[in-house]
Every structure is written in C-alpha cells, then in structure tokens.
C-alpha cells in the first residue's frame, strides 16, 4: 500500500508535467501568432503615422506654394490667376484627404493590436468608418485608382471590422493585408506627382530667394552672428563690398539648399514606398500564418519622418486644416 | 516615352528659374507683357495636370509630348544663351502653345 501510495502520485506528477509541457507548446504556438499580429499592428501604426506626416508635409508645401505665387506677383508683377490658385487649393485638399486616410489606417491598426480588448470592436468600427469615408472621397482618375480597386479597399476594411468584432486575428490580418497592398500600389502610382509638387516648391522658392538676394533685398547681418554672438555684439553691415560678398555666398547656399530639398524628397518618396511594401509583406505573413522574423518598424520610416518634420515645423496649423 | 507632366513641368521650371533675367531682357512693355502672359499660361498648364492623368495610349498625347520635349530643348538653349529676346520669346510661345494643347488633354473628373 505504502509502495502504491508513493508511485501513484509520481505517475500523476509525470502526467501533469507532460500535460503542462504540451499546453505550453500549444500555448506558445498560439501566442506566437498573437505576438506577430501585435508586432505587425505596431509596425503598421508607425508606418501609417509616417505616411500621415508625409502627406502633411506635402500639404505644407502647397500652402507655401500658394504664398510664393503671391510673392511673385509683388516681385515681378506676374498675376496670380484665380484658376491656378483654385487648382493649388484643390491639390492641397486632396493631400489632406490622403493624410486623413493614413491617420484612420493608423487608428485601425491600433484596434487590431488590441484585438482581445473590450473596446476594440467599437474602436475598429469608428476608424474603419473614417477610413471608408476617406477612400470614397479621393478624387482620382481610373488609372490611379479604379472603381474595382476602390471597392476592394472598402471590402477589405469591412472584413477587418467584422474579424475584429469576432476576435478573429487571421481574418482581420487578411483584410489589412489586402488594404495595405492596395495602398502601397496607389502610393507608387502617385509618387511622381508628389515629387513634382516638391520640385516646384524648391524651384519657385529658390528663384525668388535668388532674385531678392541679387536685388539686395535681404539682410546679410545674420552671416556674422557666429562671430559676434559669443561677445554679445549685434551685426550691422553697411559696407557694400561686404554685402556683395555675403550675397554671393548666400546665393551658393540657396542653390545647394534647393538641390538638397529635391534630393531629400526623392529619397523620402522612395523610402515611404519601400516602407509600405515592407509593411504589406509583413502583414501578409500574419495573414497566412507564417512567422514574422522582424519585430521593429521598417527602418526606412525614420528617414521619412526626418524629411517631413522640416515642413511640419514650418506651419504647424496646416497639418490639421484643408485650406 | 516622356511623361506629359514632366514636359509641362520642364517648360514651367525653365521659365521660373530665369524669370528675373527674362524680365530684365525684355526691351519693351509689349515684350514684357507677352512674357508674363506666357509665364502665367505655362504655370497654369503645369498645375492643371498635377495629380491628374493622361491617356498614355492616346496618339495625340504621345505626339504632343514628343513635340513639347523638342520645344523644351530649344527653350532651354535660348534661355541659357539669352541672346535675341525676340527669338527667346518665340521659343517660349512655341513651348507654351504646345503645352496648352497637351494640358487640355488631361483627364478631367
């Protein structure tokens, strides 16, 4: 009896240990997918945030372009015609819609990350509704976004909401997968327009800056601040020869800055497109139940943020309004 | 094939980059007014096609884009050399006129 009393618990203990190991294995398998989904959602949130900032930067450039045309009117007497002004305002409003779309995607991604929470269904429905509105409001030709592509995007959003409401992770990932692929393709189709907006901003601002410099309509004093600031002195440049010399240097700096602006945007465009493709690939892994090896947002996102920040800092109010 | 928007952009940017020199080079008010009118048209041609699309398979769009590409090459040389202002204005007129016909082909929503 004593013998059996000792052995039986040992068998039980072994059985319990084996069951626990099995449960752990099963649980780790299940948790792995959840971890991947959460990581993908976090990455998508970061990427969508960069996309919002990217479009906000374009919006700012368009605000600046509108003002530059007014400066040009004063400087050269070139009329700023109403149709062009209206087109620039329309283009700005379109970029604002894209920024809002990216913002809504970021919010939907956050709901996906909180799939099992009590509020995820409501949050998902709200952000999906915003996302659908923005997709519908995009004023685009068929070659950039066909009716079929637009319908697919909206269907995918609906699929995400239903899946989140039913706490079905993989189904939600499939919907997000379809949406991010469509968004990535859409960005690629418009990329040359985005670059053109940036190029015209650099060309017009540079042209006006150089004219103002050549006409002696800038204050060159700032050039000497580096030498005078440590001693609490204020520059007051009156020598015409000195002014002319600074003017030449300033012109070279303006040339370089304009070229840098165009190069930096070209890089940001490429990096944003790459980030969207990377995200689409990673979400696809979650949707198809494959392991996701990288858990950090695409590194290219940081470069886009850096580029966008210089414009967002320029006119903060334009990031929230359309006009 | 060249992009229609890229060609419209080229005309506008060439004029914008040298607008200071061009206005100074004009010898009469009529020339100056002509330059300003053409500049406004070039800018309008460009903006009316940003964030839009063309039927790339339309032979007329293809032909106009090619014509504008040639006109832009002549315009760049004329503006860079800044010789006879009358010849320069003729080159500007040619590019801007082709540009206006091309811009009219943009797909409207």
Helices and strands, with pairings:
The complex is a heterodimer of chains A (323) and B (109).
Chain A: H1 2-76, H2 82-113, H3 120-137, H4 147-165, H5 169-214, H6 225-228, H7 240-287, H8 300-312
Helix pairs in contact in A: 1-2, 1-5, 1-7, 1-8, 2-3, 3-4, 4-5, 5-7, 7-8
Chain B: H1 4-17, H2 19-25, H3 29-47, H4 59-81, H5 85-103
Helix pairs in contact in B: 1-3, 1-4, 1-5, 3-5, 4-5
- Regions with little confidence, pLDDT below 50 for 5+ residues of chain B: none
How large is the share of residues in beta strands of chain B?
under 5%
Secondary structure tally, helices of chain A = 8
Total count of helical runs of at least 4 residues of chain B: 5
Radius of gyration of chain A: 28 Å
Say how many strands of chain B there are.
Answer: 0
Largest sheet of chain B: none
What composes the largest sheet of chain A? none
Q: How would you characterize the overall build of this protein?
A:
The complex is a heterodimer of chains A (323) and B (109). With 323 residues, chain A is mainly α. Chain A has one domain. Helices cover 79% and strands 0% of the residues of chain A. Chain A contains 8 helices and no strands. By secondary structure, chain B is mostly helical. Chain B has one domain (4-103). In chain B, 75% of the residues lie in helices and 0% in strands. The longest helix of chain B has 23 residues, at 59-81. Chain B is elongated and about 40 Å long.
